[in-house]
Q: What sequence folds into this?
């Protein structure tokens, strides 16, 4: 089975590094990172990841605007998106689901559980 590829889009370097280390170590996935919505869109077009973890609160273009641009682009439209967000009430989850996002993971997240949360949201197995 081919190794899953994940794109982590977050303006915080620390979050990118923790997510990358955890997803690569725990799940054996290949992880690319991007520091902005624009960079995330370019990397999504280039790398065609199996899923995108997308921060909601970012300067310039927030996660919602980034998601909308990904959805409007035929090259990235089918890539599943999971939000990374501190804003995670039930009403927010419903709104994100209605927009077409796969799910949302609360920040701060437990690094050791991140891969399991992503796998669960996407219906993936965690076997390396």
A:
């Amino acid at each position: 089975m081919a190794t899953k590829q994940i794109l982590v889009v977050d303006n915080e370097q620390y979050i990118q590094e923790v997510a990358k280390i955890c997803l690569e170590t725990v799940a054996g996935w290949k992880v690319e990172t991007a520091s902005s919505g624009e960079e995330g869109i370019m990397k999504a077009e280039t790398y065609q990841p199996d899923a995108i973890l997308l921060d909601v609160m970012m300067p310039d273009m927030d996660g919602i605007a980034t998601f909308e641009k990904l959805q409007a682009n035929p090259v990235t439209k089918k890539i599943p998106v999971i939000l990374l967000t501190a804003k995670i009430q039930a009403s927010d989850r419903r709104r994100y689901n209605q927009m077409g996002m796969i799910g949302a993971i609360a920040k701060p997240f437990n690094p050791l559980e991140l891969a399991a949360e992503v796998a669960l949201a996407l219906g993936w197995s965690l076997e390396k």
Helices lie at 13-27, 37-47, 63-72, 90-99, 114-122. The chain has five helices and five strands.
